[in-house]
């Protein structure tokens, strides 16, 4: 069940995708490809439970390789719809055969549309929570559970399958970062620049877990295989989201406490500035003034709409209410 609008957002109605209600996950997400095709699937990474009883499969650190499963158990159901079509088509999406699982199969559509970038070769790239693969098996057969906790996954078939292409470094591997948190790389978000460079922006664990930690960025010039040393560029840095406009300007939102935008015009994702405050942050505050989850919609080569929440907007009777606010921004290098 989700909401659609036929009148440019003035009114909304319910709409359901799934024919089999037993198949519907608790939460779901949508991906819209560059040509308008939509994909919908489960958000919960533990959505597809695997019944491997009666199967004689080799194990690796207590896990099984996806490619060793029967073909009918290797996929997760997704729904697709091409532009102009009303009905959704049921398909199966697949992970890399070398993925290791332990009774649960994650969704290949791991993140919302804002987190998936279209690369120049037509492939898709996204940053997901670390999934163990055969590359993590040590020579003695044990499973290496250390290392990075975010991976870059690529899809060359329009989101129907994914393959790991690299990992984003943890802050704790950088000795010059003051007091690095134990598990900082949370909810990474990718920006794809016209020159092919990828920039990962991710939040870090702060005093209140997700509140107050710095916004971290790291760059890759080889399609996500290797990454530069992470660096902090803003505080706070919870739930970063961003876009790269056709005019070359990149935008990042950062929040909790407060909600802010920062901009980059160097085409590299290195220099950020001209920050805008949308919701003020108060000292020692966690997220009482906003849920700190926003959304971008590009409306032109030099403009976008950013939707965010503010929890003290007065209603017609003067009472503070929680509200979703959508603002359009026009940006240029002048």
Overall description:
- This protein is mostly beta strands and 334 residues long.
- Helix content is 0%, strand content 40%.
- The protein has no helices and 25 strands.
- The termini are far apart.
- The model is unreliable at 173-183 (pLDDT under 50).
What's the number of extended β-strand segments? 25
What fraction of residues sit in β-strands? 35-45%
Overall shape: it is globular
SSE series: EEEEEEEEEEEEEEEEEEEEEEEEE
Largest sheet: 4 strands, antiparallel
Mean pLDDT, all residues: 79
Straight-line distance between termini: 44 Å
Write down the Rg: 21 Å
Low-confidence stretches: 173-183
Total helical elements: 0
- Write out the strand line-up for the largest beta sheet, numbering strands in chain order: 3-4-7-8
Structural category: mainly beta
Helix percentage range: under 10%
SSE map:
Layout (H helix, E strand, L loop, with lengths): L1 E3 L8 E3 L12 E5 L5 E5 L5 E2 L14 E2 L9 E7 L7 E6 L5 E2 L2 E2 L11 E2 L5 E6 L20 E6 L7 E6 L17 E7 L5 E6 L11 E6 L10 E4 L3 E7 L5 E6 L3 E6 L8 E7 L15 E6 L2 E12 L5 E11 L4
Antiparallel strand pairs: 1-2, 3-4, 4-7, 5-10, 6-9, 7-8, 11-12, 12-13, 13-14, 15-16, 16-17, 17-18, 19-20, 20-21, 21-22, 23-24, 24-25
Observed structural traits:
40% strand; 0% helix; 25 strands; 334 residues; 4-stranded antiparallel beta sheet; single chain; mainly beta
In short:
The chain has 334 residues and is an all-beta fold. The protein is built from no helices and 25 strands. A 4-stranded antiparallel β-sheet has the order 3-4-7-8, with no helix packed on it.
């Amino acid at each position: 069940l989700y909401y659609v609008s036929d009148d440019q957002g003035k009114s909304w109605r319910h709409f359901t995708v799934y024919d089999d209600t037993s198949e519907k996950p608790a939460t779901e997400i949508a991906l819209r490809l560059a040509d308008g095709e939509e994909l919908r699937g489960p958000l919960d990474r533990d959505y597809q439970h695997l019944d491997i009883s009666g199967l004689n499969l080799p194990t690796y650190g207590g896990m099984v390789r996806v490619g060793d499963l029967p073909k009918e158990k290797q996929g997760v159901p997704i729904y697709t719809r091409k532009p102009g079509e009303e009905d959704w088509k049921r398909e199966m999406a697949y992970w890399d055969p070398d993925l290791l699982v332990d009774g649960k199969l994650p969704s290949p559509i791991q993140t919302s549309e804002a987190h998936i970038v279209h690369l120049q070769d037509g492939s898709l790239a996204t940053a997901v929570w670390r999934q163990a693969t055969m590359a993590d098996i040590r020579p003695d057969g044990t499973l290496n559970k250390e290392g990075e906790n975010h991976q870059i996954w690529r899809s060359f078939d329009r989101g129907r399958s994914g393959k790991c292409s690299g990992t984003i470094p943890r802050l704790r591997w950088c000795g010059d970062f003051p007091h690095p948190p134990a598990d900082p790389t949370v909810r990474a978000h990718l920006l794809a620049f016209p020159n092919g460079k990828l920039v990962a922006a991710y939040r870090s664990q702060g005093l209140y877990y997700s509140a107050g930690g710095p916004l971290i960025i790291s760059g890759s010039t080889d399609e996500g295989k290797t990454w530069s040393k992470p660096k902090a560029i803003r505080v706070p840095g919870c739930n970063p989201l961003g876009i790269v406009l056709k005019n070359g300007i990149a935008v990042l939102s950062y929040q909790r406490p407060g909600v802010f935008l920062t901009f980059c015009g160097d085409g590299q994702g290195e220099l950020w500035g001209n920050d805008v405050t949308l919701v003020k942050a108060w000292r020692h505050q966690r997220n009482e003034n906003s849920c700190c989850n926003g959304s971008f919609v590009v409306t032109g080569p030099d403009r976008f709409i950013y939707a965010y929440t503010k929890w003290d907007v007065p209603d017609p009777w003067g009472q503070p209410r929680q509200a979703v606010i959508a603002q359009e921004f026009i940006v240029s290098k002048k």
